[in-house]
């Protein structure tokens, strides 16, 4: 069984969808951010604040590789930036992985993230107008990496269940 990797911009639903998919297909789910937090016993917010983003990106790469080396089947929910650093985007194309980009529009992302930004250091201090500008530019810059995924599932206007069903079709 290939490892299932969910990727996409902050707020697209990687952590939420991975958890639901895990229940449905009874394959364990590991959220990369949570894996990093447990490993270094610090929150993502604290790692960014005290060690800086470059340090976080190195940790993120090491932990991603560690998860890819697990021998058992797993679902991995990446962080929004994971595919965009080190050679991580190349790892999305491996034979033993099935990578899925959860594609969300700027509007969907702004709606979801405006309610959920405090633990996301890249946007925590932005107001709604700044956030929309930031997401529009950042998503454009990152899309090249996200598009390296083997499959794309759009998530706009879909319930969690509908997105999970779309993924199940890919797995069938
Ligand atoms: N249809 C939906 N699919 C996924 N997440 C949704 C949906 N509707 C609302 N949300 C909310 O959007 C947020 C997505 O956050 P999260 O799963 O942490 O995304 P990510 O891990 O990609 O940053 C959660 O608060 C979730 O409850
Ligand atoms: O997009 C990013 O660079 C980041 C996304 C976050 O994960 P989520 O996409 O799960 O919010 C987390 O890894 C960190 O705050 C950096
Ligand atoms: Mg997440």
Automatic annotation (TrEMBL):
<feature type="binding site">
    <location>
        <begin position="11"/>
        <end position="16"/>
    </location>
    <ligand>
        <name>ATP</name>
    </ligand>
</feature>
<dbReference type="Pfam" id="PF01202">
    <property type="entry name" value="SKI"/>
</dbReference>
<feature type="binding site">
    <location>
        <position position="142"/>
    </location>
    <ligand>
        <name>substrate</name>
    </ligand>
</feature>
<keyword id="KW-0028">Amino-acid biosynthesis</keyword>
<comment type="subunit">
    <text>Monomer.</text>
</comment>
<keyword id="KW-0808">Transferase</keyword>
<dbReference type="InterPro" id="IPR031322">
    <property type="entry name" value="Shikimate/glucono_kinase"/>
</dbReference>
<keyword id="KW-0418">Kinase</keyword>
<dbReference type="InterPro" id="IPR027417">
    <property type="entry name" value="P-loop_NTPase"/>
</dbReference>
<comment type="similarity">
    <text>Belongs to the shikimate kinase family.</text>
</comment>
<feature type="binding site">
    <location>
        <position position="80"/>
    </location>
    <ligand>
        <name>substrate</name>
    </ligand>
</feature>
<comment type="pathway">
    <text>Metabolic intermediate biosynthesis; chorismate biosynthesis; chorismate from D-erythrose 4-phosphate and phosphoenolpyruvate: step 5/7.</text>
</comment>
<feature type="binding site">
    <location>
        <position position="33"/>
    </location>
    <ligand>
        <name>substrate</name>
    </ligand>
</feature>
<feature type="binding site">
    <location>
        <position position="57"/>
    </location>
    <ligand>
        <name>substrate</name>
    </ligand>
</feature>
<keyword id="KW-0067">ATP-binding</keyword>
<keyword id="KW-0479">Metal-binding</keyword>
<feature type="binding site">
    <location>
        <position position="120"/>
    </location>
    <ligand>
        <name>ATP</name>
    </ligand>
</feature>
<dbReference type="InterPro" id="IPR000623">
    <property type="entry name" value="Shikimate_kinase/TSH1"/>
</dbReference>
<keyword id="KW-0460">Magnesium</keyword>
<keyword id="KW-0057">Aromatic amino acid biosynthesis</keyword>
<keyword id="KW-0547">Nucleotide-binding</keyword>
<feature type="binding site">
    <location>
        <position position="15"/>
    </location>
    <ligand>
        <name>Mg(2+)</name>
    </ligand>
</feature>
<protein>
    <recommendedName>
        <fullName>Shikimate kinase</fullName>
        <ecNumber>2.7.1.71</ecNumber>
    </recommendedName>
</protein>
<dbReference type="GO" id="GO:0016301">
    <property type="term" value="F:kinase activity"/>
</dbReference>
<keyword id="KW-0963">Cytoplasm</keyword>
<comment type="function">
    <text>Catalyzes the specific phosphorylation of the 3-hydroxyl group of shikimic acid using ATP as a cosubstrate.</text>
</comment>
